[in-house]
């Protein structure tokens, strides 16, 4: 029997009030439309998709940095959504976040040492006398010299600033980290260094990750399992290598074909993902992907497919994998 998931997300929804059209009529933007997934202890789970699909909203909703409209998030069996302010503060000791922009997420007016000491003081992790030693240990753990504590964030490169952000996330000794596009703002060579650092920290501290990315290469390298998002919904979930080597959903296939191959021996022509993502203010009826899908059927234009398990551990929301729909399609032909 498998162990309970460290994080369980069930039917999470979030809509934002917006305005659309020439007259600016009120509308709802459904950033999250009932997403569900689980992350196991010690696992790196990925959320991947194009910009605007809702993956960053998902990361923030898990920590209630954005309050979801409905659904449930459980951390080690305890509800994050219904937690009181006091209990939420305690939970956030165990769930930390690494942000995309390593400069915007750091207070430019604070010394690095003060940035790292602040959460230690707020949560009373160690005594005041022990704080300098803990700050030094955090800097060392992310590959920065102890002297970095006496400098300001602007005195560091982008990669070094991200290491500071990682050190701050580690300050409270969390068990779970949400990494929101944590390497996308960095040069490719620096990305590799940060990913190696995160892997090392994961192994040393038995960390679990929700890794949010638009890069399939990063997903393949860092995450054991994951989900593909499109317009606020999950369209495919499963082991990362299976999804990328044998995609079940046409959207996953399209993303894969638009991504450079990691293996020069199997290099393929990089193509642009076909069509534009529809507006989340006015998503298409039926399957939201059908206007861009080369395999769309009439049924796809009317009914949104349910997520179903089609192989052990692999789920997909696509009528192509629904025997009843495909049977009707064959009869119609």
From TrEMBL:
What is the organism lineage in this UniProt record? Bacteria, Pseudomonadati, Pseudomonadota, Alphaproteobacteria, Rhodospirillales
This protein's membrane topology, according to the annotation, is:
Peripheral membrane protein
A GO molecular-function annotation: ATP binding
* Chain coiled-coil ranges: none
Protein name per the record: ABC transporter ATP-binding protein
Q: CDD domains this protein is in?
A: ABC_NikE_OppD_transporters
Q: Which organism is it from?
A: Fodinicurvata halophila
InterPro entries in the record: AAA+_ATPase, ABC_transp_ATP-bind, ABC_transporter-like_ATP-bd, ABC_transporter-like_CS, Oligopep_ABC_C, P-loop_NTPase
Q: What is its main location?
A: membrane
